[in-house]
Design a protein that fits this description.
about 50% helix; 5-stranded antiparallel beta sheet; 8-stranded mixed β-barrel
Length: about 800
């Protein structure tokens, strides 16, 4: 029997094995497609089978709860051990149930079966018995059902499905490949052979002829159309090839002789032409540049370069665009670029040609001219013209963003005497040093200008409030006080400064400049070496702020600071459990200064660090003193500022205070605000852990008013929560505050934390806090903050009760 041609061994070898990449790809595609479909369908079936099996397991557990659990509960209640054990063994007869146990008081009392499955479902059913009208939980029934059996059953189904589908897929693939080779493959091989010959010799005149009859029942077909197209293409390409050779010869001559750098790139931005002028301009030879991406773009200009490429892809043309590029040695070069885009017939980018001219000399001249027009030649600072432009920009931004702009006028005190006594050369160097210090004292967003002589202007942008300028002004004053060393001469000076604020003092440059000048003269009349705001109200505030700051710097030396103490009361026993140390300032002129008036100044200036160190030592010393004279031992609470964590060494301060006073660490409690815990969390956490290792207790002050989070309570190992008085104040009348306080106390109890309520002023508040099981309280109801002597009297009185 004669075999069909497509079943002969030689044909089968071509179709399936030898040199047939298409066949392999078809085979792979069919196999992958069939595998994916089979896998998806099988996976879905397995998933639903798995869900069904799991559902059966849960239904069996539910049947245990409905049917067996009541009987088992009664048996456990009357402690019928044989009956309990029999019932447990009976549960093991349910499919997939492998282990059951009864746990009471955290201990397994009865069990049956064994845990063997890796994957299992475990359920816990409470044993609840109704006794004298009340439900009593006498234990839990633990049920473990194996999921391994489910996986084994599903695995066997999966293997059978995959094997059967794989065999069917293989037979279909073989049949499809044989048909493809017979009807298409052998003719494609002939076409490819012809095209290889054509590529090696474009001028050949032979047309393509397929190895098959010229006509047929189903002819012409796709292969006939391909043959006709190839023959037509052959004739067209042969003619175009001759024209292209002539054109390329002409273009090569133009590229070689042009004085302008000409660079051609393809659609992928790879250099295809690099003429001698480009070699000379950028330093790369043609062999080094061609075949690579363009390497003349500085790293800081890559974003601009990508934007250009995006526009080029759209077909945009560029004429005389000025750009900054770099040479092979890394030196910058300014270029003038004109670019022509070449599109294919479909309108897509094919290639593009760049014409480049070096304009570095012209740009350098322009830059020098522009600098001299807008800068002071001595200091290099912006002059009045440039400053006004920067001010207008800052003003426009402030109007859009709802911000403020400050215009600061600086005039050096007694500069004329420096010029007269030391000479103008030293005076000029002195002005350069002054400009450097002013720049170092302001922010990067501010603009410093020399107006002439010893006058400087500064544009302070992006101010949210006029007071935002105060730190900058104080820094400028301090820097101006530092001596200058010029040519081995030590020069001392100071500056008088006036500032006006947009929009409070004016809405245009000239108005604000005039008012800043007036404020500067007011500073001079007030003794120089200071600053003044034009607005009198803000000026008074700035003066007071500076007065508080200056006075506070000497308050420790003059022993003007003192501590008052407010007792903390245990709500269960009524005993004094501790006291909070509160800072007070007895100013010789102002009298008793409220903390809210000087504490912010101390924190802003950093004075809170030495003050806080003194408070720790003094509070520990007083607590140790009370303990040594027989007063009840209790903890002393000290508030710690966030600034002490950022700028000070809080661990050493605590250790030193305990060592100097002799107070045991367990009697010291640090009160931290929530804001401390959420700033620089890891460093603060490390500090708190080291402090806790000393034995010191940590409490959260004003809890509930900040970014309350259970996570930091656990991470920071907090001992106590202090409920803010804003919630306690209306505790008896505001249901919301009542709910908040109750929730805080319940949460703290669940986390084994103590709670203390501050601001307790009435008996109603006290009774509600006791009802909520709050641990401690402090407030005017018990006692106001008092000096140490009064606190000692209070302690003595409570001891005698």
């Amino acid at each position: 029997m004669k075999l069909p041609s497509f079943l002969k061994p030689k044909f089968l070898n071509k179709a399936l094995i030898r040199n047939n990449g298409i066949a392999r790809r078809i085979m792979l595609a069919l196999f992958l497609f069939s595998s994916v479909i089979t896998t998806i369908i099988t996976g879905v079936e397995m998933y639903f089978d798995y869900r069904s099996e799991l559902k059966d397991i849960h239904e069996r557990i539910e049947s245990i709860r409905k049917v067996s659990l009541p009987t088992l509960t009664e048996s456990v209640w009357i402690a019928e051990k044989p009956q309990i054990q029999n019932q447990l063994k009976g549960l093991l007869n349910l499919e997939d149930v492998e282990f059951v146990s009864i746990v009471a008081n955290g201990k397994t009392e009865w069990s049956a079966g064994a845990r063997t499955a890796i994957q299992h479902v475990e359920a816990v059913l409470p044993l609840i018995h109704l006794h004298r009208g009340q439900t009593v939980t006498i234990g839990d029934l633990h049920i473990v059902a194996s999921v391994d059996n489910v996986f084994n059953r599903l695995w066997n189904r999966l293997i059978l499905t995959l094997v059967s589908n794989g065999i069917k897929t293989l037979l279909i693939i073989v049949f499809v490949l044989l048909i493809f080779q017979y009807m298409v493959g052998q003719h494609l091989e002939h076409i490819s052979s012809y095209l290889r010959q054509f590529a090696s010799n474009i001028s050949t005149g032979a047309d393509l002829q397929l190895n098959r009859p010229v006509t047929g029942r189903w002819r012409p077909d796709a292969l006939d159309h391909v043959t006709t197209a190839i023959n037509t293409m052959h004739r067209d390409i042969s003619g175009s090839h001759r024209d292209l050779i002539t054109t390329n010869q002409r273009l090569a001559a133009i590229l070689a002789d042009s004085p302008v750098a000409i660079v051609a790139r393809d659609r992928n931005h790879i250099v295809t032409d690099w003429n001698p002028a480009a070699e000379k301009m950028f330093g790369w030879s043609a062999s080094e540049a061609i075949g690579h991406p363009l390497r003349i773009v500085p790293k800081n200009k890559l974003h601009e370069y990508e934007a250009f490429n995006t526009r080029i892809q759209k077909g945009d043309r560029f004429d005389h665009v000025e750009l900054l590029r770099e040479k092979r040695d890394g030196s910058p070069i300014h270029i003038d670029l004109s670019l022509v885009v070449q599109l294919n017939p479909s309108g897509e980018l094919e290639s593009y040609l760049a014409f480049i001219t070096d304009i570095s000399g012209r740009k350098a001249d322009e830059k020098q001219i522009e600098f001299l027009a807008y800068h002071d030649p001595l200091t290099g600072l912006p002059n009045r013209l440039l400053l006004k432009d920067r001010f207008e920009r800052a003003l426009a931004h402030a109007k859009r963003a709802g911000l403020r702009v400050g215009l600061l006028f600086i005039d050096l005190d007694r500069f004329k005497s420096i010029n007269d006594t030391l000479g103008h050369d030293i005076g000029d160097e002195f002005l350069k040093e002054i400009s450097t210090r002013v720049i170092q004292s302001v922010r990067d967003t501010d603009t410093v200008s020399r107006q002439g002589g010893d006058e400087f202007l500064v544009v302070l942008s992006n101010l949210h409030h006029p007071d935002d300028a105060n730190p900058i002004l104080r820094k400028l004053i301090e820097r101006m006080r530092e001596p200058f060393h010029i040519n081995e001469q030590e020069i001392g000076t100071s500056a008088s400064m006036g500032i006006s604020i947009f929009p409070e003092d004016g809405t245009d440059y000239e108005t604000l400049l005039k008012k800043a000048d007036i404020a500067m003269y007011q500073a001079k009349s007030d003794g120089r070496n200071t600053y003044r705001f034009f607005d009198e109200a803000m000026n008074l505030e700035a003066v007071e702020h500076q007065f508080i700051f200056n006075s506070l710097r000497r308050a420790l030396e003059r022993e003007e600071l003192t501590l008052h103490y407010q007792p903390k009361i245990d709500l269960a026993s009524g005993a004094v459990t501790g006291a909070e140390a509160l800072l007070r300032w007895n100013h010789p002129e102002l009298g008793m200064v409220p903390p809210n008036r000087f504490i912010p100044v101390a924190e802003e200036s950093g004075l809170i660090v030495p003050i806080g160190h003194w408070v720790l030592i003094e509070a520990c010393r007083q607590a140790k003193l009370w303990n040594s004279i027989g007063r009840p031992a209790f903890s002393i609470a000290v508030n710690v500022s966030a600034v002490q964590f950022r700028r000070g060494d809080i661990e050493n301060s605590v250790a030193q205070a305990l060592a100097v006073s002799g107070l045991a660490a367990e009697f010291l409690e640090l009160e931290l605000t929530e804001s401390i815990l959420i700033q620089d969390v890891e460093n603060v956490l490390a500090s708190v852990k080291r402090i806790k290792m000393m034995g010191v207790k940590i409490s959260i002050d004003d809890f509930g008013t900040g970014y309350s989070s259970l996570s930091y309570l656990k991470r920071f190992d907090i001992d106590k929560l202090k409920i803010d008085q804003s919630f306690v104040r209306d505790l008896a009348t505001d249901p919301d505050d009542t709910a908040i306080v109750r929730a805080i106390i319940q949460m703290a109890r669940s986390m084994n934390l103590k709670t203390i309520a501050e601001g307790v002023e009435t008996v109603e508040m006290l009774e509600l806090l006791r009802t909520f099981h709050c641990d401690e309280a402090q407030g005017y109801y018990f006692a106001r903050p008092m000096p140490a002597e009064s606190m000692d009297t209070y302690l003595l009185a409570t001891q005698s009760i």
